[in-house]
Amino acid sequence: xxIDFNLSPSPSPSPSPSPSPSxxxxxxxxxxxxxxxxxxxxxxxxxxxxxxxxxxxxxREATAVVVRxxxxxxxxxxxxxxxxSSLFQFATEKLGYCAGSAQLRINAMRLVEALxxxxxxxxxxxxxxxxxxxxxxxxxxxxxxxxxYSTEEKRELVYSCLKKSTREVExxxxxxxxxxxxxxxxxxxxxxxxxxxxxxxxxxxxKMAKLKNLFAHTNPHTxxxxxxxxxxxxxxxxxxxxxxxxxxxxxxxxxxxxxxxSGADEPYQEKSDQPHQEQSVQAEGTSQSSTPNxxxxxxxxxxxxxxxxxxxxxxxxxxxxxxxxxxxxxxxCEFVSDSGARCGSRSSxxxxxxxxxxxxxxxxxxxxxxxxxxxxxxxxxxAR
Length: 384
Description:
Layout: H1 21-24, H2 30-41, H3 45-76, H4 78-81, H5 87-93, H6 99-114, H7 118-124, H8 129-144, H9 151-159, H10 166-176, E1 185-188, E2 194-197, H11 202-214, H12 224-239, H13 241-259, H14 281-288, H15 318-328, E3 349-353, E4 368-372, H16 373-383
Helix pairs in contact: 3-6, 3-7, 5-6, 6-8, 8-10, 13-15
């Protein structure tokens, strides 16, 4: 039987009225589900396809509405108030989306931000959600290769992808930049294994081979994964502030133990040329960890009540920085929402003064906390 999808419903007798979208959302009980299944089985083939098209239209309209909601949440940066460092984290942790679905909607939202008229195309189905997301990803990847798209170029790109399947959109984008398919990908391939895929230049391959040869005396068959792990360890040893803090504090403890006189009645006290610093990491950690909101400004003494004289140099002494990173213990951003949720993001972490430096706050570790860049700006805006 041939069915014309462009036909309107025929005037022939129709079955029971189709449930409205609001009633569909209430089909939770087994009896309601059974009733809806009975309704579907009562439809003829033509009627079933007509009802399916109507449901798809409703789904597209709802998707367009969700994209608009995402845009408003993003414009308000509402996710920051709920201890999320990004809209993606908010969508997955607070709204219940899987990672793929969240990213599709966020990418589509970014495209709508640049071209507001695209929202109608998504709602009508001329541009699918996945196609919109792929176009936006393509534009971002082109930007990383120093190719900036003007508004007109973005519009031309989008219109070239209208009414095309996802596979056809991929071909269109690959035709414009064949190298775009060589982007880095990361996907799980086991319980504790991941597969990374990316392309490298010939020059990088030569350097990698040379580095493997340098390790050949200890491991003549060094794999790329082993080389990758060695390089990551070297990078973390050099740049990770937590590891730096741990090394410094361990070295100071060893110096303190070696300098302590044997049989002395009083414990050895380390001399410090920075009198405004705290004297004990342990005491500091005890005072800071008693409550989830231990870094809120009302729990930190004002500079006027502290006996130590604050320095007015903006540079935070290394001693304070090391203590703060050691106290954090790799837990990431310390922002805590009103409901007690902690951000915990480990991206773009920064030191922040609980009691602002501009209004007299000191560089003491008790007045410092670690925030991600977005929550650092958010806290500053809220405090104004």
